[in-house]
Design a protein that fits this description.
The chain is of the alpha+beta class and 441 residues long. 22% of the residues lie in helices and 37% in strands. It has a 4-stranded antiparallel beta sheet with strand order 1-30-29-28, with no helix packed on it. A hairpin with a 4-residue loop joins strand 19 and strand 20. The radius of gyration is 27 Å and the shape is globular.
Length: 441
């Protein structure tokens, strides 16, 4: 007798039309409610089920557009931030319990709860403040970025804050340091020459994934925030929002209107899970939020609607990822880190070589003290020298390719050996030698 096979089927709630532009959506952590931040300055509460989505309350929280809304971890409060630079806090009865009228000197763009009483706010000037809601005062302030703070997350212990900004940087702050400390900045990435819009911490806080304006996911290693260790391609346009599903899986919402499931180590776009569309027209996804059941997400766009998406099958498949795939991810991560190590080693070697040239007092090839005959002899020597160095550069590139295949120790040893050979040669101008080409591998 064949046993009966059953499959749980989840039915998505119908779309909800707010009839005005929605800036943000957030789910209650324990109940079937969601909050919408609206351009009118209102915060709308909706209750959802598989049959319907109904509006249960509209709160007039701000004079200008409400850009962000967020429930506290225990669901006792709903916080919102506005273009009018204010922060509002309401309780479960919809009563206003706190309003900070001029909380920031610039419009507030994003919020993040540290616990039930500590709220982080980031604004359009790049400033970040931690507010003690019980004392109605800022207990921690930093301003290391120069443009809009686009997203904020903390590590699992809640003592390290990471922020992305439209100035193209990722900043990392130590919340354990006092507000009077000279520096609270733990690290900051180089400017990536594009807006950074979203972020997530994955793999037990070992990696940080950042979404960019050009559709690249930058992967940073914890503790090494200056430059990314890897890039994940596959998004044709801006990655506006990221939500974490588990330690090796994120969902992204993109400007092209599609929701994608992305695997982190091994790095790949794993699936297209849905899109925010009306008829045949796709709308840019500006925000994703994960419901308390963890099997459904909501998306918002410029069409004033909240759409719900069932992602249960994808999550079930990702939760069954086997050891082989995780082992492959570990190998891919090791190869990426080896490439970065080689790059750093090469940078130090070039800097040391350049410093050695200047310390040895060699004259420039354009020196006015050299006559024409000396120029010709030196040019011949230099051409020969450059040819030799180009050969060494080719060996360096081959070493990096080996590192990408996991043979990092051998490649690193070869790299150092080649640079020692370069340093032992007669010093010449690097005008015709492009060593930085190794960095683009």
């Amino acid at each position: 007798t064949w046993g009966a096979m059953t499959e749980t089927v989840y039915i998505e709630p119908p779309a909800f039309d707010a009839r005005e532009h929605i800036f943000d959506v957030a789910f209650h952590p324990f109940e079937d409610f969601a909050a919408l931040a609206l351009v009118s300055g209102e915060t709308k509460l909706i209750k959802y089920s598989t049959e319907e989505v109904v509006e249960v309350a509209t709160l007039r929280s701000h004079k200008s557009s409400c850009r962000t809304a967020l429930f506290s971890p225990q669901g006792n409060f709903l916080a919102s931030g506005s273009r009018d630079k204010s922060i509002s806090l309401v309780n479960t009865d919809g009563e206003l319990v706190l309003r900070l009228r001029k909380a920031h000197s610039a419009p507030i763009n994003t919020l993040h709860f540290l616990d039930e009483h500590l709220l982080v706010a980031g604004d359009d000037s790049g400033a970040v403040k931690v507010w003690d809601l019980r004392a109605s005062s800022a207990v921690y302030e930093v301003s290391e970025q120069t443009e809009t703070v686009t997203d904020m997350k903390t590590n699992s212990e809640g003592n390290i804050l990471l922020t992305t900004s439209a100035d193209g940087t990722l900043a990392v702050y130590d919340l354990r340091r006092s507000n009077t400390a000279k520096t609270k900045l733990m690290g900051r990435s180089d400017c990536l020459e594009e807006d950074l819009l979203s972020l997530a911490l994955v793999r037990g806080d070992r990696n940080v994934v950042v979404g960019s304006q050009e559709g690249v996911l930058y992967v940073f290693k914890w503790g090494f925030f200056g430059d990314c260790v890897d890039r994940i391609l596959g998004h044709p346009s801006a990655i506006e929002t990221i939500v974490k599903i588990d330690d090796n899986t994120i969902l992204t919402g993109s400007e092209d209107g599609f929701i994608r499931g992305v695997s982190i180590y091994p790095n790949r776009v794993d699936a297209v899970l849905g899109h925010h569309a009306e008829g045949e027209e796709n709308f840019p996804i500006t925000k994703l939020a994960v419901a308390r059941q963890k099997t459904m997400i909501a998306s918002i766009s410029h069409d004033s609607r909240v759409k719900f998406h069932d992602v249960s099958k994808f999550i079930a498949r990702r939760s069954g990822v086997g050891r082989d795939e995780l082992a492959a991810g570990e190998e891919e991560e090791a190869a990426a880190e080896a490439k970065v190590t080689l790059k750093e080693t090469g940078t130090r070697a070039v800097e040391e070589e350049t410093k050695g040239n200047s310390d040895d007092g060699f004259e420039d090839e354009d020196s006015e003290d050299m006559d024409d005959s000396d120029d010709e002899d030196d040019e011949d020597d230099e051409d020969e020298e450059v040819s030799s160095k180009r050969k060494l550069n080719a060996e360096l590139l081959r070493g990096i390719q080996k590192a990408k295949k996991g043979n990092s120790r051998t490649a690193d040893r070869k790299l150092k050996e080649n640079y020692r050979r370069v340093q032992n040669m007669k010093s010449v101008s690097y005008t015709h030698l492009t060593l930085p080409t190794i960095y683009s591998v």
